Amino acid sequence: MFPKIITFCCNWCAYPGADFAGISHFKYPVNARIIRVMCSGRVDPGLVLEAFISGADGVMVMGCHPGECHYEHGNYEAERRIKLLRYLFDKYELGGKRLRVEWIAASEGRKFAEVTADFVETVRKIGAFQEKAREILEVMKDTFYGERLRLALGAASRALDSGADGEKYEETLKKIAEEEMKKYRVLQTLRKEGELCVRVVAEKLGLSLRETFDCFLDLKHEGLIEEGDIGEDRYMIYGFVRGER
Amino acid sequence: MEEMRSERVRTGVYVCHCGVNIAAIVDSAGVAKFASSLPGVVIARDYLYTCSDPGQEMIRNDIKEYGLNRVIVASCSPRMHEPTFRKVVEEAGLNAYLFEMVNIREHCSWVHTDKEKATEKAKDLVRGAVARASLLEPLERMKVGVIPACVVVGGGVSGMFAALSVADKGFKVYLVEKETSIGGHMAQLDKTFPTLDCSACILTPKMVDVARHKNIELITYAEVESVEGYIGNFKVRVKKKARYVDEEKCTGCGECAKVCPVTITNEFELGLSGRKAAYVPFPQAVPLVYTLERDRCMRCGLCEVVCEAEAINYEQRDEELELEAGVIIAATGYDTFDPLKKPKLGYKEFPNVITGLEFERLINSSGPTGGEIVINGKEPKDVVFIQCVGSRDKEIGNEYCSRFCCMYTAKHALLTREHIPDANITILYTDVRAFGKGFEEFYNRARDEGIKYVRKEIDAKIWTERCDSDRVMVNVEDSMGVRGFEADLVVLATGATPRSDAKEFARILRISQRADGFFMETHQKLQPVDTPTGGIFLAGCCQSPKDIPDSVAQACAAAARASIPLMKGEVEIEPLIASVDEAFCVGCRSCEMICAYEALSFDDKKRVVVVNEALCKGCGSCSTTCPSGAMSVKHYMDRQVFAQIDGLLSPGGIM
Lengths: 245, 655
Ligand SMILES: Cc1cc2nc3c(=O)[nH]c(=O)nc-3n(C[C@H](O)[C@H](O)[C@H](O)COP(=O)(O)OP(=O)(O)OC[C@H]3O[C@@H](n4cnc5c(N)ncnc54)[C@H](O)[C@@H]3O)c2cc1C
Fold this sequence. Notes:
By secondary structure, chain A is α/β, with parallel strands linked by helices. In chain A, 54% of the residues lie in helices and 13% in strands. In chain A, the strands form two sheets. In chain A, strands 2-1-3-4 form a four-stranded parallel beta sheet, with helices on both faces. Chain A has a three-stranded antiparallel beta sheet with strand order 5-7-6. Chain B is α/β, with parallel strands linked by helices. Chain B contains 18 helices and 34 strands. Bound molecules: flavin-adenine dinucleotide (FAD). The site of flavin-adenine dinucleotide (FAD) has 39 residues of chain B, from helix 7, strand 11, strand 19, helix 11 and helix 12.
């Protein structure tokens, strides 16, 4: 079946909204599979990425309308995170429209059905993932489970809740996410191919020597890779130590 | 728990037919057969009605016979029967949280038509649940004490009866009413259908009962500002507005109103008459305490001079109260539809056109005209009633029927006949809905009294125009053509709408509204007064338009439901809360700062975050924030959700 859709529904608004669509017998395409979570704020981008890696072609996160979150602000957090993920999807040409956040009230059965139908069509048009997507998705998953981006997202939530400039934060988050993506791409390459030197990795990934070198340093600091043999210049060779979380 | 994990998973899967509700679209037997091939599944069956007695018995027996340690039921929404089946597995000695439900009715058979594809989807859903269930862990429910008090919001007939019923059971009740008196709309009515007993005569004694009840604390002229906490332990913040009159001292003698020089419109009389800035809304008001209208009082001091009780107090301030209660009943009622939204009806344009509620005041002997029906200075002869104004009207966005207008119009017609025996009375109706006890008889009585019922179609166009100096013409256009009715008086049977502040109030209580704006119950048939937010119940017209008998019945039902936790004295709280893996916690405290409930705190000695289980509500924001993977929410751990995702999508994965 194509496209396969995973829909995360919060327990309080969206899930009963989907129930209401059922009770009212509003028809929608069979493609969507619903996962119930207590709050849309629980939908870690890591879960979303896991869904894509496992074969989903599109993921929707449905929560309560703004101001109506059962838990105060979980829906905003979901939106913030998914928006960032969408940005990365577009940047890496995976199709940001494969991701959507929707607000569904418990009474909005019709909206649930309509949004689902619309989303299935949208994803159908985007088409299936290219083969290389899996690698990028895995790097993204590492990025979103990585300490740095998580800390930054947490800090952003707090700052924004107390009225900080949203756009400025968004830009910073994007920058951090992109840097982290680079770092984890380097890690992924080392994981796959074993020991490599900076120069080779840089070539493989189309990164500059300097960028790649910085990634190596960061990874070493975080204890994710270990120093191996050293070649002629400083773009030496490393292997990796610790596996994923 | 370690023990549990090492024990081999033995799963039982039950796929329900729900009669034909599921089986007509999903091949339940096929899904069961498929389930039996999944890892860990030792028995899989399909069954006609799994929730039936024998269905439940089957599961209990299987748990024992096959040594099941996971049970999955694929049937309806967990919002319907998860509690039922959790109980079933518990009765057979299995932890309730090792049960998992799959929704193949609301989310599958009822929304799809292609049998093959729907069956495939059902299989995927079951595979997801089997994968997830294998990683579930047993959890213990927490018990918390219940504060033996109830807050009832809204002092109309519904709120009054809810308050009385809870108070009679021996619990403290805080009745919060936003107006200066309780009574709600019923206090404005003249007679009540279908028995035509006088509204004030049956309501006033009850209002007094409420005020006198030793367990009821009446808090009028007050509004709920915020609600915190959860079932058993709510904190309700209430703003009680200053009346500038000491409630304890005021004797209700009314001398202040007599001397008050400021006359303003009387909302209780819907603007049909005036009142003073020092006022009670109506003579039988409860509490019988005067109020000085804050914006209009000139602080002239006359009332202060005449008040023997020395009750006037210009210095009074708004008061902030914090009420503690185990349960809350919402009984905030309805607004009547504003006929200005249908300008062609000529409301406010012609003095001849009034609303049903205004009619109630006109014929009331304590109303502005002393009970005389007078329009343009004389008694009307031709009276036309128009039904379904703002109800059953998709154009205006109110598709629902307001349920009481057909009968109140019949009542108004009968009362008109009584007051003006030779009046020529016409009712323009769509369908007469006389569904209640004694309603059909009441309707027949109106017909027998020579009242003309003239049918108009539901989408008929209706407009009024001036026909001679003080009469209007009511025009009706539908497939039967254009018809005109001359009238001295036109009464619009305006229906009920949600309160203008219903959205805001729903947000405060964290309850939902239906698409039409009325508050949403957990289940329309089986849990009609519960809300999905534990400990909050609904009574009366805030849930949907209804007449007085239904409002009172529902209020008593809400009181009965709300009393259960009060009587038990403790409630079980879902253990779906955060937990910290101390080995991974790096003490960054990100989670602590994101938590909306202050449920997380930092242990200075251990340098890790700890969860206050009583405060945590299990939203999971902390786990999404945690940089080190230390924080998770029980029952929704990453690995459990991962397993479900993989199950739902397999065979899958990109390439
Ligand atoms: C013209 C007319 C005639 C009718 N005639 C009849 C009849 O003859 N027989 C019959 O059975 N039914 C009749 N009805 C229906 C009847 O009015 C309702 O069934 C009844 O009033 C419902 O009571 P309630 O308590 O649910 O709501 P309401 O009467 O609306 O009371 C709600 C109360 O809550 C208060 N409130 C609202 N919001 C807040 C808040 N945020 N905080 C605190 N307090 C709040 C309000 O001030 C009010 O006191 C008639 C209705 C109309 C319009």
